[in-house]
Amino acid sequence: MKRILPAALASVALSLPASAEVAISVYTGYQEAPHSRVKGDDGTNSFNFLAEWEGKSSAMPPYYGLRATWWRSQNIGYGLEFNHAKVYASDETQVDNGFDDLELTDGLNIFTANVFYRWPGQWAQGKLTPYAGGGVGFAMPHVDVQRGDSKTFEYQVTGPAVMLAGGVSYAFTEAWSVFGEYKGTMSWNDIELENGGNMKTDVITNALNIGVTYSF
Q1: Which pTM does this prediction carry?
Q2: Can you say whether residue 6 is alpha, beta or left, with left for phi > 0 and alpha for psi between -120 and 50 degrees?
Q3: Which of 33, 70, 164, 195 has CA atoms 20 to 30 A from the CA of 1?
Q4: Where residue 68 sits, what CATH number does that domain have?
């Protein structure tokens, strides 16, 4: 086994294209969400209303994301991403519809497998690189919902999700760069509530991100 593992790793390394590059990115930003329809029942009574969502990006826990991209060539990259987005129902939405709590705030966690395309060497002597991409995956929010005697407070895998992003990165060394981007997600959430209840809502988030990337 001691000989097999190094040999396998060496074989994988030799099979990588010479231009292969791995980029690890961390970002935060300002994120909000438009209204969306919420419907279901709390185990006793049904509900169907339009929720006004708030992002509260800087409130604890804050909005952030982690992204790993394997650039297989100068232009095409594949990777994985975790996005800790958040949505809080406004106080008016909660009061008008009988909720004590209605939020997905630790967070509305979106996991995606991504494909990105970039245009290197275009501006500022190659330091500025525009890019765009998208991904598909799933949502795993922390559900914090209370309506009457029904209280749900747990992580759930609630359904599929997609993301789109586009921005520009600026390389200030060979390994380090900063970036700014727009990022949008959509998740189709089918949530199980206590007392046999259920809640469905399709949530869109819009965010302006800033971040830093380390490439090797």
Answers
A1: 0.88
A2: alpha
A3: 70
A4: 2.40.160.20
